[in-house]
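We both want to read discrete structure tokens more fluently, so let's practise on a single case. Would you supply a protein for us yourself, any chain you care to pick? Would you write everything just below, so we can both look at the same thing?
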Amino acid sequence: MRISFIKTLAELADRDARIVLLTADLGYMALEPFVEKFPDRFFNVGVGEQNMVGVATGLAEAGFLPFVYSIAPFAALRPYEFIRNGPILHHLQVRVVGVGGGIEYSHNGVTHYGLEDVAVMRVQPGITVVAPGDYQQTRAALLASWDLAGPIYYRLGKDDKTSVPGLEGHFALGRAEVLKEGTDILIVTMGSIAGEVVGAAKILAEQGVSACVLLVSSFNPAPVEDLIDHLDRFQQVITAEAHYPSGGVGSLVCEVAAERGARCRVTRCSIESCNDGITGSQQFFYDRHGLSGKAIAATALRALRGTVAT
């Protein structure tokens, strides 16, 4: 997604001279399409994410449209107070770009995992939060949101080759996308793990279960009405995300279901903890935490049989 994002950003920068890009000594073999075209509008601030957001805040106050780029936890967590006290509280057009949301930086260890970034960002009133499902939707999301008032957090994946079946690059702020229609169970997901969820739906179909798959790519604003329309149709709902259980798409679904009185049971599939020192590939973690297509399908079947542990 990051290459798609940067190439699209370079196109937008051709149209709008306010756009500048900042990085905290990251993005090699990713940022070049922008850097080579606009060297005077690119700033590497070094390993100093708080300073990067501070500089971006000043640039936004001066009338620029800054995009700050780093790995998800370094973009969202390390400068969190600076994001809150600068762009959010002062309603400035700073765009925070967090790459590798979830466990995409798998072998780098837990310090590089973005497992709470959506939670901490969406709790803040006044910041738009966007988490595309693949590189095609990334482009559509940027084109739809780049000039919005106020700050934005973009949660991007690293994969620029795989597209999520059924998505076809569709994006609308505050809306959810239906990846597959179904009648027996609803699976709600976010981010690039949507591919695993579509795979789970295929496994379920082979066993005679019709699963509806819904992708949430916008959190602030959240697709509340789209969620209600779907939650009201199903007794069993599964959420799947490469995120901690609190604050992500599972929490959003539970909040909407409770507040709007949806009569469904929600089972959340997420990453409970990564604090045991074990590392491995992204697929290893999906298998280990019940987030592979096969594991999600198994959870759905247990939910339908009423045997999911509470």
Observations:
- The chain has a mean pLDDT of 96.
- The longest strand covers residues 65-71.
